Amino acid sequence: MHAIAMGLSRALAMIGGIVLAALILMTCLSILGRQLSILLHSDLAQTIAPGLATALLGMGVGPIFGDYELTELGMGFAIFCFLPLCQITAGHARVDIFTSFLKAGTQRWLRLVIEILFSAALILIAWRLSVGMMRRVNTGQTTFLLEIPYWWPYAACFVAASITALVGIYMVWVRLMEAVSGQDIIGEGAEGEH
Q1: What is the separation of C-alpha 134 from the centre of its chain, rounded to a whole number of angstroms?
Q2: Domain chopping of the chain, boundaries
Q3: What local confidence, expressed as pLDDT, does residue 186 receive?
Q4: What's this model's pTM, rounded to 2 decimal places?
Q5: Which of 114, 111, 119, 116 has the alpha carbon at shortest distance from 163?
Q6: Residue ranges for the chain with pLDDT beneath 50
Q7: How far, CA to CA in Å, does 58 sit from each of 40, 55, 61, 84?
């Protein structure tokens, strides 16, 4: 079961990484295009090489159309794609000022309680994304510039959030087995201590 959950989490994180890398590349190209467009519109470029400036501007040199919308829509999805891997590897940041002195058994039960609360929050997020998605489907709302239906990113985020919720439920089971058996299966994982 762990191998399936880990494989699904890693695959989703890879998809999120690809989306994030594409958004970064698009943003860089859009900024470069915007700055080049400003330069080509300048008096200096129009004086020195008006034909080249006009030709490049005619070819569409400038910012990427709808870059803000694409970034807005893609970032939420990318974040949801990283959550399952963070959840299954216990990669969330923690502050253990008050819990570092507790016995190992008590810490396992505390991790179970935290995992239950976190899983409940993940289920709530997935459910509310499904409600928001259905509202967007029913209203037919689209983005202003690219006219992308708003329910598309909601659907993508809902799928990623649902997988995260399933991984969260699996982690509740793992933490329960740890607490009952008194042995660490995943333990504190890769949590960053602060």
Answers
A1: 21
A2: 2-181
A3: 79
A4: 0.83
A5: 119
A6: 190-194
A7: 11, 5, 7, 45
